[in-house]
Amino acid sequence: MAAVVMAAPGLASAHDFWVERDAGAFLVRYGHRGGEVLAIDAGKVKAIRCGDRSGAVKDVLSSASFGPKEVKVSARCDALSAFHHGGFYSLTPDGEVNLPRNKAESAVKAWESRQFAKWVEVGSPSAAKPLGDDLEIVPASDLAGRKVGDKVTLKVLSQGKPVAGAIIAIDHKPLGETDSAGETRIRLRSSGFESVSASVRRPLKTAEADDLVLEASLTFEVAR
Fold first, then answer.
1. Are strands 65-66 and 16-22 parallel, antiparallel or unpaired?
2. Which DSSP string do the residues of 184-207 spell out, in sequence order?
3. Cα–Cα dist 72/87, whole Å
4. pLDDT digits (tens, 9 = 90+) for 83-121
5. Total structural domains in the chain?
């Protein structure tokens, strides 16, 4: 269903896109998780989905509050995801530019970037239910009470269907690929909360880009 995203200079994964909790609200951020938070372009955030305890999903983008470096969502959600359309990137002899192939001078390769960030409430009965994003990670085992060193099973989905061969990483360090059922097993590394990412590449072969790069992050609390 999807080919592996191989390590290459200039991929959009150089910038993280994630969701975190703060004072009862959700914060959507872009930049380097655990480091510098960058400005977020409101026009590139195309959807914010909220899943309640029953599993019902609604888009809450219209009620979100945009700041220079974060998007704040004050809603009761057991799972929340955001979609960031990074646009088109081209690799040229002079470096990477945020332009499609047909507008970049001497482009060597080009890709379209779509990033999805998600938070799930540990222990919620709807935490494992998909929100329907083009790429998302869902827990395939109970996350409640898990601590650093424990292993958990995660599943990568695309519009609810398993994705085999997705690259799984924590802090940009690849841990492996998903199996034929879209699943992988990882060991938790961070106390307080963990953030796991998945990446896949699909061929486009259009005038704008050679490939579509999809990235997803899943963040959740880890017991101390």
1. unpaired
2. EEEE---SEEEEEEEEEEEE--SS
3. 22
4. 999 999 999 999 999 999 999 999 999 999 999 999 999
5. 1
d(CA 121, CA 20): 11
| Calpha distance 109→92 (Å, rounded) | 8
pLDDT at 10 over 80: no
pLDDT tens, residue by residue, 147-178: 999 999 999 999 999 999 999 999 889 999 99
* Cα angle 163, 208, 99; round to 5: 105
Question: How far, in Å, CA of 202 to CA of 164, rounded?
Answer: 12
For 69, residues 6+ apart whose C-beta sits below 8 A from its C-beta are 29, 30, 31, 37, 38, 39, 40
Encode pLDDT of 67-90 as tens digits: 999 999 999 999 999 999 999 999
- Domain extent, residue 42, equals 3-222
Residue 9, classified by CB atoms within 10 Å of its CB into exposed (0-12), middle (13-18) or buried (19+), is exposed
